[in-house]
User: Which sequence fits this backbone?
């Protein structure tokens, strides 16, 4: 009975962590470039159940002078020992494209990440909602992180730039004031990369990814689209349905704990009572 309590409790802990994962997906349903997480559960090794004296030859009616019928011994079955969260996997599926008309909004179609500079080092993101810093003209993220070029340096937009254009591989063009029409100039190229191993990047928070030790970026095979943003690939309806289902499973585990507790109560206070 003690084992039953632990088994049911482990299932409740598993579903609690799954609820946290779903809640995070819902909270980021409107976050540009966000990729939903999936809680993958595993099962502890099962234990074989047997009855007392099942394997004692003194109680085997087929035994006669060391001889018995059949080579297999009777089994009651296996007992599950509970579950746990084995991995928090990330769904890297493409999010829907939303047209914004903002010339600094860019989205990635296919594989690829933008490189940005953070206090912890170079990090990667698929959030292309960029801004032009009023202080120094740098191309930055919504958190004020400089967007890096292929040489690993910030991209500075000239003060006299009247418009900005992005090429499919991250080329940055600006139209500068003066002349008719204004001259078009290439001022840099976004560091637009991907990784051979899909597990080379780990989520860090704030819609950023950090590379694992030894991970080497290479030019991305995807393309960049201007004037659009990639929305989160978390579907609110699906996540809500999963949340309700997760609640039902948690509720079943809590009822199992109550039942086990009641059995323990009877075993201690009634079965073991001396008349």
Assistant:
């Amino acid at each position: 009975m003690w084992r039953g309590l632990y088994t049911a409790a482990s299932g409740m802990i598993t579903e609690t962590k799954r609820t946290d994962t779903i809640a995070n997906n819902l909270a980021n349903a409107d976050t540009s470039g966000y990729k939903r997480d999936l809680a993958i559960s595993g099962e502890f090794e099962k234990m074989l159940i047997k009855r007392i004296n099942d394997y004692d030859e003194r109680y085997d009616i087929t035994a006669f002078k060391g001889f018995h019928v059949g080579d297999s011994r009777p089994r009651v079955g296996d007992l599950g020992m509970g579950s746990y969260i084995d991995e928090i996997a990330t769904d890297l599926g493409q999010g829907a494209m939303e047209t914004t008309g903002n010339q600094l909004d860019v989205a990635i179609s296919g594989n690829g990440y933008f490189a940005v500079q953070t206090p912890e080092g170079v990090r990667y993101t698929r959030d292309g909602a960029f801004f032009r810093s009023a202080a120094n003209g740098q191309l930055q993220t919504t958190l004020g992180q400089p967007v890096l070029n292929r040489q690993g340096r910030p991209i500075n937009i000239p003060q006299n730039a009247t418009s900005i254009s992005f090429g499919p591989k991250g080329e940055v063009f600006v139209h500068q004031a003066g002349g008719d029409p204004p001259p078009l100039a290439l001022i840099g190229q976004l560091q637009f990369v991907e990784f051979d191993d899909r597990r080379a990047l780990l989520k860090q928070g704030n819609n950023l990814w950090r590379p694992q030790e030894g991970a080497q970026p290479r030019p991305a095979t995807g393309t960049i689209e201007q004037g659009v943003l990639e929305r989160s690939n978390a579907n609110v309806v699906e996540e809500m349905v999963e949340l309700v289902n997760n609640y039902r499973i948690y509720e079943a585990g809590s009822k199992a704990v109550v039942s086990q507790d009641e059995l323990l109560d009877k075993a201690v206070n009634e079965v073991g009572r001396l008349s």
Remarks:
- The chain has a mean pLDDT of 87.
- The radius of gyration is 30 Å.
